[in-house]
């Protein structure tokens, strides 16, 4: 009899159930991550096994919603890794300046902070009039948040520092107003952003972009899925388009479809 | 005769002729020279001397003649001297001539000349003598006397000269004859010599060219394309040509040998070349592959083709418990036919090969081993080769090849060549693959780390969002409160309807209830004021009712009774509301003391037995054995609870019984209570009745203020609807709980659980109680029903971030300071101002708590940059947020600001909204 890790089997069944019930396919996510999230949920719910969780998600839509929000990890910051934005501003923006229209896809935009950052950056570089950003995430709740453009006040100090480190040209406060709880992004920075639900695992290309930003999303995917998503990006990119990845990510595809543009900041270019 | 000798002879003859010729020439030249010398030296000399003597003599004679004729003695001395010199000269020459003359005629002539000259000289001397005596008279005579002598002398001299000239002519003739003879001899001898030389040369050339020609012919016959068979020369002469022929023949044979060897070498080199090319091609493959599987696949195909094998299998070593060799690639593999998939080391020839580390070649294959398959047949191989792939004497793989022909040594050599490098290549690729794997792994680890950190962040964010959720829950609770308040209002309205008779008073109560913020306090504080008029109403209505003066008619007394009873009801209501509001406001004082249960039961019995009798109901008070004899609690409140419960029971029971049981609580009863672990001793009081009961769905509602089962009930039974609310609240205050079980029409059963708390209410539980979610049948009365409105909260919170914070505004422009100060003071901030950097530093030192600094940059005395640097250097203010106020569009200024220590910057002219936003950010 083959030796089977029963927990893995349970996880497979759980992920299959989730896929069948919700259409969200996590089967090609990094197992370690998914496993940790599931165990987290088990601890919170005081459930003994993954199977018992599976049973619940099948019969209780509330559980399904919970586990889906568990799987969606939404960590983001404005001007996260400021050096990336600095490099983008210095090296990529000059190459975009000649284009009559600039289309940018933020895949996995989470609560939108990096989209706002890109909007500010392009506004300062005088490209905002010609730009359209398509910000997508699989999680509609975070998208709803992102659309609002509201940022918790206590995060703003960090963001201000990031903005400065990323080579901001004006004062950061020009882009928001704050009350005692939150800062509100100026609306014109959101006017050119289209927020839409898009699942990198199951959905396909929907336009041709000059820049694709997908930072700290691929780390949750296994290698096969990473390769597939990178190919999807490649197809969705105009010739010589740019791809920005997260600081710890890399292109692990055998096919030479990207060339390195800035190795340190993980900016790649379509071959 | 040898060619050498012939040449010696020929050349010798020539040289000999030349030498003879030379001697003849030399002899003749010598002869001619002697003639010439005689002519020139001898004859010519004598002739010239004679001529000379003649001339001298003539000169002397002329002088003498002149002297003799002229008698001019003016220069006689000079002339004498000259004549003497001439005389000496003549003498000398005559001596010379005498010495050189060797012919007889000459000698006699010269003697004669001497004699006549002597006579002449005599005459001369006489002349001289005359001259010395200066006597010219005899001169003519003297001279004339010597004339004959003089003529003789001249003739003699002429004769001598002619004689000598004739001699010279003879010699010349002689010489000419000699010369012509010489020429003849010369011509003859040269011709002879030339003839001889030509003859010898012709003979030499002819004799050598003949032999050389035959050799040339022989050499021309050689086919240089085909050096294996060279024709030999047949020259038998014993001279050099013969030797050449011999040498040529031996050269030909050695050439043949050499050619043969060369052919062998070429073959060998071609073989080596073939090996080299093939092995290079194969080695070239290595660099094309990064995966071992594709490499060996490619390799076995190429190798098999190179050695013309028809079948090839590659076994790669796998180390495990046992060393095994697994088939990883094959060439022309026909399914299962091409060998086994796995060999253990030492198993079969493949295993043996791996063990021995040597190539094994099999040439005698049994007839039935047909392993090579084509589309039509399976064929027996002629030869099988099994070879190990070694690296540092370590087998890493084994290759097996089968061929239809025997493997040639060159093929085997190629195999060896390839195998020599293959080990390294395979190990390299395996190493590379391992490195690639490790790289991937490390990359995966990095990503995983990032992932985990993100997850952690998410978790912390989740925690935060949970707290946010709790906030929203609190918000929800507030909303519920509001709703409940609404309900309270509804209830108030209902009570208003019920007590329409006492509208005035009720209006006050309503107002009391409606003033949501101050209601509770108002009620608590105004109890006295409320009760006083009510008391007077009661008192006066009672007085009217008693009608001690008998001045009222019956109807009026009845009115007074109504007024009284209504007033009393009202008082009860007010008291209830007061109690409730006190509980809600938290002003209810609870005094925990010892409560004697026996006394309590007796008290209850006493109080309600008459009431029961009056209503015609059965009333029993029972106390079980396990009931505690005393507990620590607030006796007054406990009594009030029991009283309320019993009043309710009596109120809603028309017939049957009301009973109260007092017992100790079981552990089971206490499940779900917050104080379950805080007290060992619990009192359980059960009040049962056989009244109208409560429908199950209303269980929750009856504990809410102003709730009875329905409006009809209220009208029928009266009461304020607050009794159970107060009961519940009190039960809570005492750390216990009140529960109800009922069935409609059959009666109700209220269970009261009260703990004994000798040390009073545990502090941490107090709040827990109020937050505790309701358990099954018990509903909390909203605790904060009368709390302030959340909307008002919001308006108050608006400036909460800024309110009370101290801001230091540093600007040299008073109008700016004034404007900012005004704006910030509206936000209820403490505003300090400074006019320049120095002032600012002083203010900061003086004030111990500055929350934020607004710093202008352009200032006199000390500018903003310097000020900020100094602030950052001081120990106490490294973290205070400083917002720099910069001029617009000056990027460098901003950078300078940040370098100087500013936390943020905004551009002037200031936008108030932006300023407040920034300050909120940095003060949050």
From TrEMBL, chain A:
<keyword id="KW-0489">Methyltransferase</keyword>
<keyword id="KW-0808">Transferase</keyword>
<dbReference type="GO" id="GO:0008983">
    <property type="term" value="F:protein-glutamate O-methyltransferase activity"/>
</dbReference>
<dbReference type="Pfam" id="PF01739">
    <property type="entry name" value="CheR"/>
</dbReference>
<feature type="domain" description="CheR-type methyltransferase">
    <location>
        <begin position="1"/>
        <end position="271"/>
    </location>
</feature>
<dbReference type="InterPro" id="IPR022642">
    <property type="entry name" value="CheR_C"/>
</dbReference>
<dbReference type="InterPro" id="IPR022641">
    <property type="entry name" value="CheR_N"/>
</dbReference>
<dbReference type="InterPro" id="IPR050903">
    <property type="entry name" value="Bact_Chemotaxis_MeTrfase"/>
</dbReference>
<dbReference type="InterPro" id="IPR000780">
    <property type="entry name" value="CheR_MeTrfase"/>
</dbReference>
<dbReference type="InterPro" id="IPR029063">
    <property type="entry name" value="SAM-dependent_MTases_sf"/>
</dbReference>
<protein>
    <submittedName>
        <fullName>Chemotaxis protein methyltransferase CheR</fullName>
        <ecNumber>2.1.1.80</ecNumber>
    </submittedName>
</protein>
<dbReference type="Pfam" id="PF03705">
    <property type="entry name" value="CheR_N"/>
</dbReference>
<dbReference type="GO" id="GO:0032259">
    <property type="term" value="P:methylation"/>
</dbReference>
Automatic annotation (TrEMBL), chain B:
<keyword id="KW-0597">Phosphoprotein</keyword>
<feature type="transmembrane region" description="Helical">
    <location>
        <begin position="182"/>
        <end position="205"/>
    </location>
</feature>
<keyword id="KW-0808">Transferase</keyword>
<keyword id="KW-0812">Transmembrane</keyword>
<dbReference type="InterPro" id="IPR036097">
    <property type="entry name" value="HisK_dim/P_sf"/>
</dbReference>
<keyword id="KW-0547">Nucleotide-binding</keyword>
<dbReference type="InterPro" id="IPR036890">
    <property type="entry name" value="HATPase_C_sf"/>
</dbReference>
<dbReference type="InterPro" id="IPR011006">
    <property type="entry name" value="CheY-like_superfamily"/>
</dbReference>
<feature type="coiled-coil region">
    <location>
        <begin position="435"/>
        <end position="515"/>
    </location>
</feature>
<dbReference type="Pfam" id="PF00672">
    <property type="entry name" value="HAMP"/>
</dbReference>
<keyword id="KW-0472">Membrane</keyword>
<dbReference type="InterPro" id="IPR001789">
    <property type="entry name" value="Sig_transdc_resp-reg_receiver"/>
</dbReference>
<dbReference type="InterPro" id="IPR047347">
    <property type="entry name" value="YvaQ-like_sensor"/>
</dbReference>
<dbReference type="InterPro" id="IPR003661">
    <property type="entry name" value="HisK_dim/P_dom"/>
</dbReference>
<dbReference type="InterPro" id="IPR003594">
    <property type="entry name" value="HATPase_dom"/>
</dbReference>
<keyword id="KW-1003">Cell membrane</keyword>
<dbReference type="InterPro" id="IPR003018">
    <property type="entry name" value="GAF"/>
</dbReference>
<keyword id="KW-0067">ATP-binding</keyword>
<keyword id="KW-0175">Coiled coil</keyword>
<feature type="transmembrane region" description="Helical">
    <location>
        <begin position="6"/>
        <end position="29"/>
    </location>
</feature>
<protein>
    <recommendedName>
        <fullName>histidine kinase</fullName>
        <ecNumber>2.7.13.3</ecNumber>
    </recommendedName>
</protein>
<keyword id="KW-0902">Two-component regulatory system</keyword>
């Amino acid at each position: 009899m083959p030796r089977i890790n029963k927990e893995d089997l349970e996880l497979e069944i759980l992920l299959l159930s989730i896929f069948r019930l919700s259409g969200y396919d996590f089967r090609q996510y990094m197992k370690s991550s998914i496993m940790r999230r599931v165990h987290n949920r088990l601890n919170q719910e005081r459930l003994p096994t993954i199977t018992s969780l599976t049973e619940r998600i099948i019969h209780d839509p509330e559980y399904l919603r919970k586990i889906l929000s568990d799987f969606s990890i939404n960590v983001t910051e404005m001007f996260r890794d400021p050096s990336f934005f600095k490099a983008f501003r210095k090296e990529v923006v000059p190459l975009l300046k000649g284009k009559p229209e600039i289309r940018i896809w933020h895949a996995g935009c989470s609560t939108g902070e990096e989209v706002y950052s890109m909007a500010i950056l392009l506004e300062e570089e005088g490209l905002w009039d010609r730009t359209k950003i398509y910000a997508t995430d699989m999680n509609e709740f975070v998208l709803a948040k992102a659309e609002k453009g509201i940022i918790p006040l206590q995060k703003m100090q960090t963001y201000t520092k990031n903005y400065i480190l990323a080579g901001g040209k004006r004062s950061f406060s020009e882009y928001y107003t704050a009350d005692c709880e939150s800062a509100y992004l100026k609306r014109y920075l959101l006017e050119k952003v289209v927020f839409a639900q898009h699942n990198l695992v199951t959905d396909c290309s929907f336009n041709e972009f000059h820049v694709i930003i997908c930072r700290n999303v691929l780390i949750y995917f296994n290698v096969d899925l990473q390769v597939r998503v990178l190919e999807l990006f490649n197809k969705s990119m105009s010739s010589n388009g740019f791809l920005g990845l997260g600081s710890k990510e890399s292109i692990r595809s055998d096919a030479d479809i990207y060339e390195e543009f800035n190795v340190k900041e993980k900016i790649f270019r379509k071959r | 005769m040898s060619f050498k000798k012939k040449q010696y002879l020929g050349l010798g003859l020539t040289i000999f002729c030349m030498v003879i010729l030379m001697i003849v020439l030399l002899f003749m030249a010598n002869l001619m020279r002697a003639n010439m010398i005689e002519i020139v030296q001898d004859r010519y000399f004598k002739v010239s001397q004679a001529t000379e003597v003649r001339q001298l003599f003539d000169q002397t004679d002329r002088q003498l003649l002149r002297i003799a004729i002229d008698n001019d003695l003016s220069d006689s001395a000079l002339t004498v001297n000259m004549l003497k010199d001439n005389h000496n000269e003549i003498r000398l020459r005559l001596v010379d001539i005498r010495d050189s003359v060797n012919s007889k005629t000459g000698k006699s002539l010269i003697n004669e000349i001497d004699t006549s000259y002597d006579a002449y000289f005599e005459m001369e001397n006489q002349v001289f003598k005359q001259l010395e005596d200066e006597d010219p008279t005899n001169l003519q005579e003297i001279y004339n006397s010597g004339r004959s002598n003089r003529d003789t002398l001249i003739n003699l001299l002429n004769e001598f000269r002619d004689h000598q000239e004739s001699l010279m002519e003879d010699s010349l003739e002689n010489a000419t004859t000699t010369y012509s003879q010489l020429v003849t001899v010369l011509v003859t001898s040269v011709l002879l010599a030339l003839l001889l030389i030509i003859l010898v040369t012709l003979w030499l050339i002819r004799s050598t060219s003949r032999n050389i020609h035959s050799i040339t012919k022989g050499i021309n016959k050689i086919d240089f394309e085909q050096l294996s068979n060279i024709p030999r020369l047949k020259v038998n002469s014993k001279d050099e040509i013969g030797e050449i022929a011999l040498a040529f023949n031996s050269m030909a044979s050695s050439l043949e040998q050499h050619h043969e060897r060369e052919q062998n070498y070429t073959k060998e080199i071609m073989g080596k070349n073939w090996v080299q090319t093939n092995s290079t091609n194969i080695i070239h493959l290595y660099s094309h592959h990064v995966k071992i599987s594709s490499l060996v696949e490619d390799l076995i195909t190429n190798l098999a083709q190179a050695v013309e094998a028809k079948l090839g299998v590659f076994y790669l070593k796998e180390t495990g418990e046992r060393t095994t060799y697994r088939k990883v690639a094959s060439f022309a593999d026909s399914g299962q036919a091409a060998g086994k998939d796995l060999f253990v080391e030492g198993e079969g020839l493949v295993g043996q090969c791996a063990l021995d580390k040597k190539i094994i070649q099999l040439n005698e294959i049994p007839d039935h081993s047909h392993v090579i398959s084509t589309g039509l047949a399976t064929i027996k191989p002629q030869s099988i080769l099994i070879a190990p792939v070694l690296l540092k004497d370590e087998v890493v793989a084994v290759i097996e090849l089968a061929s239809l022909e025997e493997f040639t040594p060159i093929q085997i050599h190629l195999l060896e060549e390839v195998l020599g490098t293959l080990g390294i290549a395979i190990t390299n690729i395996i190493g590379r693959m391992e490195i690639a794997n490790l790289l991937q792994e490390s990359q995966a680890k990095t990503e995983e780390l990032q992932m985990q950190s993100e997850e952690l962040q998410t978790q912390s964010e989740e925690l935060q969002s949970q707290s946010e959720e709790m906030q929203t829950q609190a918000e929800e609770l507030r909303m519920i409160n509001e709703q409940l308040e609404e309900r309270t209002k509804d209830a108030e309205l209902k009570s208003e309807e019920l007590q329409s008779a006492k509208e005035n008073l009720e209006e006050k109560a309503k107002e009391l209830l409606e003033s949501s913020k101050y209601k509770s306090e108002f009620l608590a504080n105004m109890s006295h004021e409320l009760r006083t008029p009510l008391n007077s109403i009661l008192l006066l209505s009672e007085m009217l009712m008693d009608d001690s003066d008998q001045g009222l008619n019956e109807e009026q007394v009845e009115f007074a009774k109504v007024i009284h009873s209504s007033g009393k009801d009202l008082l009860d209501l007010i008291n209830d509301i007061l109690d409730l509001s006190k509980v809600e406001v938290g002003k209810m004082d609870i005094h925990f003391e010892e409560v004697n249960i026996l006394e309590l039961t007796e008290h209850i019995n006493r109080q309600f037995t008459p009431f029961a009798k009056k209503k015609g109901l059965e009333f029993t008070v029972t106390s079980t054995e396990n009931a505690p004899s005393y507990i620590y609690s607030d006796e007054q409140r406990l009594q009030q609870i029991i009283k309320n419960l019993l009043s309710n029971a009596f109120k809603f029971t028309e017939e049957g019984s009301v009973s109260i049981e007092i017992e100790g609580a079981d552990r089971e009863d206490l499940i779900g209570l917050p104080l379950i672990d805080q007290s060992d001793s619990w009192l359980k009081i059960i009040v049962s009745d056989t009244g109208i009961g409560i429908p199950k769905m209303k269980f929750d509602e009856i504990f809410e203020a102003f709730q009875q089962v329905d409006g009809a009930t209220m009208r029928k039974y009266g009461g304020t609807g607050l009794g159970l609310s107060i009961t519940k609240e009190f039960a809570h205050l005492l750390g216990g709980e009140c529960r109800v079980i009922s069935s409609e029409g059959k009666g109700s059963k209220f269970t009261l659980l009260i703990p004994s708390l000798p040390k009073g209410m545990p502090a941490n539980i107090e709040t827990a109680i109020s937050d505790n979610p309701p358990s099954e049948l018990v509903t909390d009365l909203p605790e904060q029903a009368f709390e302030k409105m959340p909307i008002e909260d919001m308006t108050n919170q608006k400036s909460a971030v800024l309110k009370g914070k101290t801001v230091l505004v540093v600007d040299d422009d008073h109008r700016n300071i004034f404007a900012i100060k005004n704006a910030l003071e509206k936000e209820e901030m403490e505003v300090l101002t400074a006019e320049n950097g120095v002032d600012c530093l002083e203010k900061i030192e003086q004030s111990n708590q500055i929350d934020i600094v607004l710093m202008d940059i352009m200032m006199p005395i000390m500018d903003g940059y310097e000020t900020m640097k100094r602030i950052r250097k001081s120990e106490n203010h490294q973290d205070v947020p400083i917002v720099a106020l910069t001029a617009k569009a000056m990027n460098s200024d901003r950078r300078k600001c940040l370098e100087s220590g500013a936390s943020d910057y905004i551009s002037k002219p200031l936008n108030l909204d932006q300023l407040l936003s920034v300050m909120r950010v940095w003060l949050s």
